[in-house]
């Protein structure tokens, strides 16, 4: 937020300087240029509104969260293990399923640009969005690989892919895991209890 305020203050100072000290040599004002720069700066830093597409390179935070530019984005319709989550395989050996899910998502994206269409507000500062690489829905892909669970109320189209992943014992379904949505709910309740 302080970067945004700093840019606004710099633009306001430049605008004030232009109005108070016009360019007499050329006989023209710099006001149109500064107004265009200010408008461009504000639109670049403004949060996405419903229907606006966030696009560009993405950084994977965990199996269900990306950073696109400066925005955190939760993948629509899924619950994936957090980065520090541990699961158990079929032989009851622990493994870092959260890191595995994040790594798989990062490999799926590769160096491609991601396009995310906001679908509401997620947890914390993250927006919830349907994100794609080309035509591929990243949330649906994570569910199909068994690396995330669908929210069947919000994204019923993902249910068939989850059932197939379960049938093939892919990803999380190959062993024992805690439902990522339940884990987040418990963490949120614990942090609210500690704050109050």
Task: Characterize the structure shown.
There is one protein chain. The chain has about 200 residues and is of the alpha+beta class. It contains six helices and eleven strands. The protein has helices spanning about 1-20, 30-45, 95-110, 140-145, 160-170, 180-195, and strands at about 55, 60, 65-70, 70-75, 80, 85-90, 95, 115-120, 125-135, 135, 150. Strands 1, 2, 3, 4, 8, 9 and 10 form a seven-stranded mixed β-sheet that branches. Strands 5-11 form a two-stranded antiparallel ribbon. A hairpin with a 5-residue loop joins strand 8 and strand 9 (about 125-135). Helix 1 runs antiparallel to helix 2 and helix 4 (about 140-145) packs parallel to helix 5 (about 160-170). Mean pLDDT is about 80; it is low at about 1-5 and about 35-50.
Task: Please provide a brief summary of the model.
By secondary structure, the protein is an alpha+beta fold. It is built from six helices and eleven strands. The strands form three sheets. Strands 1, 2, 3, 4, 8, 9 and 10 form a seven-stranded mixed beta sheet that branches.
């Amino acid at each position: 937020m302080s970067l945004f305020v700093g840019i606004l203050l710099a633009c306001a100072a430049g605008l004030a300087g232009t109005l108070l000290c016009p360019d007499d040599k050329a006989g023209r004002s710099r006001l149109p240029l500064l107004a265009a720069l200010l408008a461009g700066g504000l639109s670049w830093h403004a949060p996405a509104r419903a229907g606006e597409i966030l696009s560009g390179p993405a950084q994977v935070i965990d199996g269900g969260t990306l950073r696109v530019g400066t925005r955190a984005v939760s993948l629509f319709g899924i619950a994936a293990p957090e980065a520090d989550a541990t699961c158990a395989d079929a032989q009851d050996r622990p493994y870092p399923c959260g890191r595995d899910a994040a790594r798989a998502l990062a490999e799926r994206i590769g160096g491609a640009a991601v396009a995310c269409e906001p679908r509401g507000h997620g947890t914390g500062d993250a927006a919830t969005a349907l994100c794609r690489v080309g035509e591929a829905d990243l949330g649906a892909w994570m569910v199909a690989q068994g690396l995330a669970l669908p929210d069947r109320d919000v994204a019923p189209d993902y249910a068939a892919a989850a059932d197939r992943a379960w049938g093939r014992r892919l990803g999380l379904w190959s062993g024992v895991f805690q439902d990522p949505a339940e884990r987040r709910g418990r963490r949120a309740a614990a942090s609210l209890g500690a704050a109050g």
